[in-house]
Amino acid sequence: MPLQPKPTIKAAQGKLGILLPGMGAVATTFIAGVHAVRQGIGKPIGSLCEMGTIRLGARTDNNVPTIREYVSLAELDDIVFGGWDLFNENCYEAAIEAGVLEKELLESLKEPLSAIKPMKAVFDQSYVKRLRGEHVKTGTSKMDLAEQLMEDMKSFQKDNGCDRLVVVWCASTEVYREPTSVHATLANFEEGLRNSDDEIAPSQIYAYACCKLGVPFNNGAPNLSVDIPAIQELARETQTPISGKDFKTGQTLMKTILAPGFKSRLLGINGWFSTNILGNRDGEVLDDPGSFKSKEVSKLSVLDSVLQPEKYPDLYKDLYHKVRINYYPPRGDNKEGWDNIDIFGWLGYEMQIKVDFLCRDSILAAPLVLDLALFSDFAKRAGMHGIQEWLSFYYKSPMTPEGLYPEHDLFIQLAKLKNTLRYTVGDDLITHLGAEYYE
């Protein structure tokens, strides 16, 4: 028998405002891409929401609708874009500066892109040391800054006639910080905002403002933002979906594809050396040791979670894993991720695998921004709140409820995402153990 629908899902009617802290390479590539799809001069390749399918019932039923047909998602034509940035360039100017998309394409989109101008950002240079803020908010306290962000969102929604809002963090990686007592409870955090506590990062101010208003927040960087008890307490209180962290794009995407394959065939790994070369603003920010530490922690967590060395000590207990990121301006946004993997097989005989992924970082990230925005809006309309673990598919360091370890295997993550959609509709979950397996 089909599962009974758990939430009551409101239809995606009216306009959806997608607000982006950080309107640099990733954000402008995403916005320009959606406009290109709207105009029929591009396809939303990489977006599960726009191009993915979902199987229902037995394989012999051949019932495989698109995800967009299956659940109610906002239409691309109903999306309105906005955001905040340290620099005052409009979206067209920022996209030209980022250098990701061809100028000919951007010229064809100049009018709608030029109309998108960033609001002043919340910025603290002690958290992003390689950037200088030119278009930033000032306030009497960090609580004042949070209230300014809330006013920005309310004004944007009213001025653009939006029925709903979502926020996807596309700004820079902040320096690495551990949680402190100010993050432990909502009361502590709000007191810290009023006292402008140094341990409260800009991304946490955005997260607080969003959750206070019930606006879904998705963290695309390895920052400590929504993965703290205070914000999670607020998200439960206001029934706000939150997810994070750190978009899974180039090198880590490859690890979550390759490592599950090695583990499934019980191939051992002695070492995995990874280095990255990139020259965009993200590379410049990560050239600072504090920001790199945040990214390093995010990247290093993947293999341990996938390979489970405590359960397979003969294969992975002594794995040496090293990650490097190198700022190299001539490479621009076209990042190179190089991996050397030392594996061993039958009787311990050694082999090597080398992967050189010449990727376009923002091209890989843009469809993730779209999916996270549409799925988190869906979650809000379905009454789902707190940590959205089913969105782990999109993150390097997926958040989990307390007591659960994160799942990094890309294929398990995809199965969880699709089963969550089936569950919300009330259809049978696909486990490959039902009668359909034998049909």
Compact overview of the structure:
By secondary structure, the protein is α/β, with parallel strands linked by helices.
Give a description of the structure.
This protein is an alpha/beta fold and 439 residues long. It has two domains: 15-247 and 363-425, Rossmann fold; 251-358, 2-Layer Sandwich (Dihydrodipicolinate Reductase, domain 2). Helices cover 39% and strands 16% of the residues. The chain has 16 helices and eleven strands. The strands form two sheets. A seven-stranded parallel sheet has the order 3-2-1-4-5-6-11, sandwiched between helices. Strands 8-7-9-10 form a four-stranded mixed sheet. The model is unreliable at 1-5 and 435-439 (pLDDT under 50).
From the structure above, extract its key features.
single chain; 439 residues; alpha/beta; Rossmann fold; Dihydrodipicolinate Reductase, domain 2; 16 helices; globular; disordered N terminus; disordered C terminus
Strand content: 15-25%
E-strand count: 11
Q: Tell me, rounded to a whole number, the average pLDDT.
A: 92
Tell me, what's the shape? Answer: globular
Instruction: Report how far the terminal alpha carbons are from each other.
Output: 17 Å
Architecture (CATH level 2) name of the largest domain: 3-Layer(aba) Sandwich
Helix content: 25-40%
CATH first level of the largest domain: which class?
Alpha Beta
Biggest sheet strand order reads 3-2-1-4-5-6-11
CATH superfamily (homologous) name of the largest domain: NAD(P)-binding Rossmann-like Domain
Radius of gyration: 22 Å
Oligomer: single chain
The SSE order reads: EHHHEHHHEHEHHEHEHEHHHEEEHEH
Question: Which fold name fills CATH's third level, the topology of the largest domain?
Answer: Rossmann fold
Largest sheet: 7 strands, parallel
